[in-house]
Design goal:
heterotrimer; A mainly alpha (about 230); B mainly beta (about 140); C alpha/beta (about 290); A: about 230 residues; mainly alpha; MetI-like fold; globular; B: about 140 residues; mainly beta; OB fold (Dihydrolipoamide Acetyltransferase, E2P); 5-stranded antiparallel sheet; 1 helix; 10 strands; elongated
C-alpha cells in the first residue's frame, strides 16, 4: 500500500521532470522563432501550440489515442519501424504531456524574448555573433525569470494533468498511474484517507513551486531599461 | 541687423588686419576686419559684398558741424520713429533701403527727432561685419 | 592621397510617424574620415546607418566597402550583419545586462586580445568599472562602454547613432573629446548621426545634410553653414532657449555649449526666432571685453 503510494508519486515526478526537460529543449528554438521569425505561418503555429490551453484535455487525449493506435498511421508506422507502442505506456504519456504542456513552456519564454530590446540582438549580430551564440550568450541569460516561470509552470501543469493521462495512459500502477489519477481512483474506491494524502501532497508541491516563481521573479525582474 | 549690399573699392592691410573700403549706393563705407586678401576669399577689390551692423551700433546726428572720427556717415530722412520707455527705433531712408538705428528715447527727445528730419547715421568701422553674398 | 572606403547608393521606402518617405541617397566616404549625417529627426539618418550595418535591407541599390560588395540588389548580394566589420553604437547603447563591462568588451572580440581590451578600458576610463554590470553605471559611463565595445572588434567602420543624445549637456563636451581622441588614436572611418549642430562642428570634418530622405547639401561644416564666409571672428553655435520682448527690443536667451547667454535683437528680427532654433552668434573680434578670472 505505502510502496504503491511512493511509486505513484515518483512516477508523477518522473513524468513531470522528463516532460519539462523535453519541453525546454523544444520550446527555446520554437519560442525564438515565434518571437523573432518573419514567417507568415507563425500565427498558425502559435494557434496550434496554444490550443491545449483551452481544448478539453479529453479531446487531445482522444486524438492522441487514435494516433497511437497500431492499426493505422502513425501508430502502425511506429510499431513497424521501431517496435514502439505508445498507447498505455510511459513514453506515450511523455509525448502526450509534452504536447499538453507546450503552451505553458513556450508562452513565457516567447514573452521574455519579446520584452528584450531588439537592439540587444542587433548589437550581437553587429559584433559578428551567430544566432546560436546570440541565443545562448545574450538572449537566454537575460530572460532567466521567464525561463524559471516556464519550467515551473510546465512542471506543475504536468503534475496536475488528468484528462489526457486518463485517455492515453489508463491507470496501470507503476507504469501510467500518476497521482492525479490515483486520487480519482481512491475516491471511487471510497478510500478517502489515501485520496487525502495524494491531494495534500499535490497541493503542497504546487504551492511551493508557484511560491518559488514569485519569490524568484520578485528578486530578478526580467530585463529592465536601466 | 542692418544689411546692405555694396562693392569693395579698396583694401588696406597691416599685419592680419584690413581696412576695407566699400561703396554702398554711391556712398563710401568702411569696415575693419581681421583677415587679409591672402587668407580670406571675399576680400577682393571690385567684389560684391554684404555689410552687416547692429541697429544698436548706429548713432544719429542732426545739424552737425565740425569734424568727427567716424568713417561711416550715411545721410538720410527719418521715415518712422517707434519709442519705448528706454529705446527708440529710428528708421531712415538713406536712398538704398531703410537703415534702422536703436538709440535711447532720451537721446531721441533731446535731438527732437521727427519723421521727415534730415539726419546722419554714424557707424564705427570696427562694428561693420562683412559677409560673402554667395553664402548669404 | 585620400582613398574612398565606402561607396553607397541606395533607395528604401520608409514609413515614419509623419508618413511615407523614400530614402534615396548616394554618397562616398573617405578612409579615416569622421562624417556626420545631420538633419531633423525622421529623415532617415538612422536608417542609413542600419543599411550600412546590414540591420535593415535597402529596397534597391548597392554598397561597396573597400573592395567588397556588401549589398547589391541587382546581383542579390546582401552580406549578413555579422559578417560586416562594423562597430555600431546604438542609441540605447544595447549593452548586455548579463555581462560586466569587461565581459561586454570581451564578447565583442573575435579572438581574445588582452592588450587591446586593456587599451580600450584605459582609453575610456573604464578600468575601475570593468567588473560592474551595465545597470549600475551612469549614462555617460554606459556611453563609454558602448563606444569601447563597438571598437573592440577592430571594425573598419564605426557607426554612431546619436551617441550623445541621452547625455546631460554638461557631460557632453567631455564625451565629445573622448570620441575625438578615439578617432585620432584608431583612425577608424566613422559615421555619426546627429541633430546637434555644435556637435557636428566639433567632431566632423564633413557633413551630409539630410532632408526628407535626400542629401540636400554636403561639405565641410564651416562652408556648409556659412561660417567662414563672414568676417565676425567670434562665432558660437547656440540654441534658442527663450524669446522675449523687453521695451521695444527682443531678448534671446541662448545656450552655447553649456553657457547661457542673452543677446538683444531688434523687435522685428526677434520674430524670426523660435525656441529650439539653432543659431550662430557672431561678433566682431573688436567687441568682446575680456577679463581674467584666474
Amino acid at each position: 500500500m505505502d510502496r504503491e503510494f511512493i511509486e505513484t508519486l515518483l512516477l508523477t515526478l518522473k513524468l513531470a521532470g522528463i516532460t519539462s526537460v523535453f519541453l525546454l529543449i523544444i520550446s527555446i528554438p520554437m519560442a525564438a522563432w515565434l518571437a523573432f521569425g518573419k514567417s507568415k505561418i507563425r500565427a498558425l503555429a502559435e494557434t496550434l501550440i496554444t490550443m491545449p490551453m483551452v481544448l478539453p484535455p479529453s479531446v487531445l487525449g482522444y486524438y492522441l489515442l487514435v494516433a497511437y493506435s497500431p492499426s493505422h498511421f502513425p501508430g502502425s508506422w511506429l510499431k513497424q519501424l521501431f517496435d514502439i507502442q505508445l498507447a498505455f505506456t510511459f513514453p506515450g504519456l511523455v509525448v502526450g504531456s509534452v504536447l499538453f504542456s507546450l503552451p505553458f513552456m513556450i508562452s513565457p519564454v516567447q514573452a521574455g524574448f519579446r520584452n528584450l530590446p531588439g537592439s540587444l540582438r542587433e548589437a550581437s549580430s553587429t559584433l559578428g555573433k551567430s544566432k546560436f551564440v546570440t541565443l545562448f550568450r545574450v538572449l537566454l541569460p537575460n530572460i532567466k525569470p521567464s525561463l524559471v516561470t516556464a519550467i515551473v509552470l510546465s512542471f506543475a501543469h504536468t503534475i496536475g494533468e488528468f484528462g489526457v493521462v486518463l485517455m492515453i495512459g489508463g491507470n496501470i500502477p507503476g507504469i501510467t498511474r500518476v497521482a492525479s489519477i490515483a486520487i480519482y481512483d481512491e475516491v471511487q474506491a471510497l478510500n478517502f484517507q489515501q485520496a487525502d494524502r495524494y491531494a495534500f501532497i499535490l497541493f503542497m508541491v504546487t504551492f511551493v513551486l508557484l511560491l518559488v516563481i514569485f519569490a524568484f521573479n520578485r528578486k530578478n525582474s526580467s530585463w529592465k531599461p536601466f | 541687423m542692418n544689411r546692405f549690399h555694396g562693392k569693395i573699392t579698396a583694401i588696406t592691410s597691416s599685419g592680419n588686419i584690413s581696412l576695407v573700403d566699400a561703396e554702398v549706393a554711391g556712398k563710401p563705407m568702411s569696415a575693419i576686419v581681421i583677415g587679409t586678401p591672402e587668407n580670406t576669399a571675399y576680400l577682393r577689390a571690385e567684389r560684391d559684398i554684404i555689410l552687416l551692423f547692429k541697429e544698436s551700433e548706429v548713432s544719429i546726428g542732426k545739424n552737425l558741424q565740425g569734424q568727427i572720427s567716424l568713417r561711416n556717415q550715411l545721410d538720410g530722412v527719418i521715415t518712422e520713429i517707434i519709442s519705448g520707455q528706454i529705446f527708440s527705433k529710428i528708421t531712415l531712408d538713406i536712398g538704398n533701403g531703410p537703415l534702422v538705428a536703436l538709440v535711447t528715447t532720451r537721446a531721441a527727445q533731446r535731438l527732437q527727432l521727427q519723421v521727415g528730419d534730415q539726419v546722419t547715421a554714424f557707424i564705427k568701422a570696427n562694428e561693420v561685419i562683412l559677409m560673402d553674398p554667395e553664402n548669404g | 592621397m585620400e582613398t574612398v572606403l565606402i561607396e553607397a547608393s541606395f533607395r528604401k521606402k520608409l514609413f515614419t510617424a509623419t508618413g511615407e518617405l523614400t530614402l534615396d541617397v548616394n554618397f562616398a566616404v573617405q578612409q579615416g574620415e569622421m562624417l556626420s549625417l545631420f538633419g531633423p529627426s525622421g529623415v532617415g539618418k538612422t536608417t542609413i546607418l542600419r543599411i550600412l550595418a546590414g540591420l535593415t535591407e535597402a529596397d534597391e541599390g548597392f554598397l561597396r566597402v573597400g573592395n567588397d560588395v556588401w549589398f547589391d540588389s541587382a546581383k542579390k548580394i546582401n552580406l549578413p550583419a555579422r559578417k560586416r566589420p562594423v562597430g555600431y553604437m546604438f542609441q540605447d547603447y544595447a549593452l548586455f545586462p548579463n555581462m560586466t563591462v569587461r565581459e561586454n568588451l570581451r564578447f565583442a572580440q573575435p579572438a581574445h586580445d588582452i592588450r587591446h581590451l586593456e587599451e580600450l578600458l584605459e582609453l575610456f576610463d573604464l578600468t575601475t568599472l570593468q567588473h560592474r554590470k551595465p545597470d549600475v553605471l551612469s549614462g555617460g559611463q554606459r556611453q563609454r562602454v558602448a563606444l569601447a565595445r563597438a571598437l573592440a572588434r577592430k571594425p573598419e567602420i564605426l557607426l554612431l547613432d546619436e551617441p550623445l543624445s541621452a547625455i546631460d549637456p554638461q557631460f557632453r563636451a567631455k564625451l565629445q573629446d573622448e570620441i575625438l581622441e578615439m578617432h585620432r588614436r584608431f583612425g577608424v572611418t566613422t559615421l555619426l548621426v546627429s541633430h546637434d549642430l555644435p556637435e557636428v562642428f566639433k567632431l566632423c570634418s564633413r557633413v551630409l545634410m539630410l532632408e526628407a530622405g535626400k542629401i540636400v547639401k554636403q561639405g565641410n561644416p564651416y562652408n556648409l553653414f556659412g561660417e567662414n564666409k563672414i568676417s565676425g571672428k567670434v562665432q558660437l553655435m547656440a540654441e534658442v532657449l527663450r524669446v522675449e520682448k523687453e521695451d521695444i527690443v527682443g531678448i534671446l536667451t541662448l545656450m552655447a555649449g553649456n553657457t547661457l547667454m542673452k543677446v538683444a535683437v531688434c523687435d522685428q528680427e526677434r520674430q524670426n526666432y523660435r525656441v529650439g532654433d539653432k543659431v550662430v552668434i557672431i561678433s566682431k573680434a573688436f567687441n568682446p571685453v575680456i577679463r581674467k578670472i584666474s
